[in-house]
Amino acid sequence: MASRLTRPYDNWLMAIDPHEILAILDRCCDRFTFPMLDNGYVYLAATRLSLYRGTEEWAIVIEVFGFSPRSELPDTHIYTFSNALHDRDSPAKYVNEKAYYQYLANNPSNESRFVFPIEAGEWQDDQDCELVAAGAKEFIMRGHTLPLPALAEYAKREIELQASPRIKVFELSRFAADVARDSVLATAQERRLSVPPSMTQIFQLEAWHHPNVVEEDVRPNGSETFQQLAQVLATGDTSLYRPSLPPNTHWRNWPEGGIL
Q1: Strand 75-82 vs strand 138-141: parallel, antiparallel, or unpaired?
Q2: Same domain for 138 and 59
Q3: Which domain of life is it from (predicted)?
Q4: Long-range contacts of 185-188 (CB under 8 A, 24+ apart)
Q5: Neighbouring residues of 170: CB distance < 8 A, sequence distance ≥ 6
């Protein structure tokens, strides 16, 4: 499908091709490596998007903080999309050479890294990782001990408790994202784990209109948001990001996340 950019450009004048950016993002959707905010295995809590640019290189980093029972702890998934990825996995991480080359073939322009801002501890029920332990008083986030919130604190933030008075880990994650957003999302260093040091950060969004990527017509190639972000990366002109659609990245907009 041809890119539907909102403003035409003469690609031969630019070292970075916005059409190729969108094509890469769409291919990642095909491989299920582009973030789905209604991922049935992840309870969404917070997101952030950053753009990086070099002379001929570009990178998009999307952070997704949430909770997957399969991971046992809340984590921040750092998705990086780029034409010049940095610090890729080494062959030693794979059982054999074939597995290593399959990793490269399946992820030619994208990388995933995970960080765990909330530490394992007695705050989590040792029989059910989806629950906060009954009677727990505190938890540790980024090395700091914090009190667990009272039930009323969840209500203040419109976090409806599914098993009150017990607290689910995804509910605590959403509370933490509301009161300490910068702590649950990636640090500046973590954010660019897969971004070459030569690139400069040029833009950052705390909220945007994210496509529902299960629908082919509104994947990045058909998304106003990513069409405009591709233009920003191609030109370095951040004024080209002029969204007409309201942000939808808050977890309340993706109620099917985590339900599987």
Answers
A1: unpaired
A2: no
A3: Bacteria
A4: 185/46, 185/48, 185/63, 185/65, 185/76, 185/117, 186/48, 186/63, 186/76, 186/78, 186/115
A5: 43, 45, 66, 67, 74, 130, 258
Mean pLDDT of all residues belonging to the chain: 94
Residues 72 and 165 in one domain: no
Q: Evaluate if residue 59 carries a pLDDT over 80.
A: yes
Rounded to whole angstroms, the Cα distance separating 31 from 105 reads 11
Judge if 85 and 103 occupy the same domain.
yes
Q: Is the pTM of this model over 0.70?
A: yes
Q: Work out the pLDDT band at 218, boundaries 50, 70, 90.
A: confident
Residues 102 and 227 in one domain: yes
**What pLDDT does 8 receive?**
41
Do 255 and 244 lie in one domain? The reply is yes
Parent domain of 164:
118-184
Kindly report, residue by residue over 150-197, the tens digit of the pLDDT.
999 999 999 999 999 999 999 999 999 999 999 999 999 999 999 999
* pLDDT tier at 217, thresholds 50, 70, 90: confident
Question: What is the number of alpha carbons within 13 Å of residue 120 lying toward its C-beta?
Answer: 5
* Residues 49, 51: Cα–Cα separation, whole Å: 7
65 bridge partner residues: 46, 76
The total of structural domains in the chain comes to 2
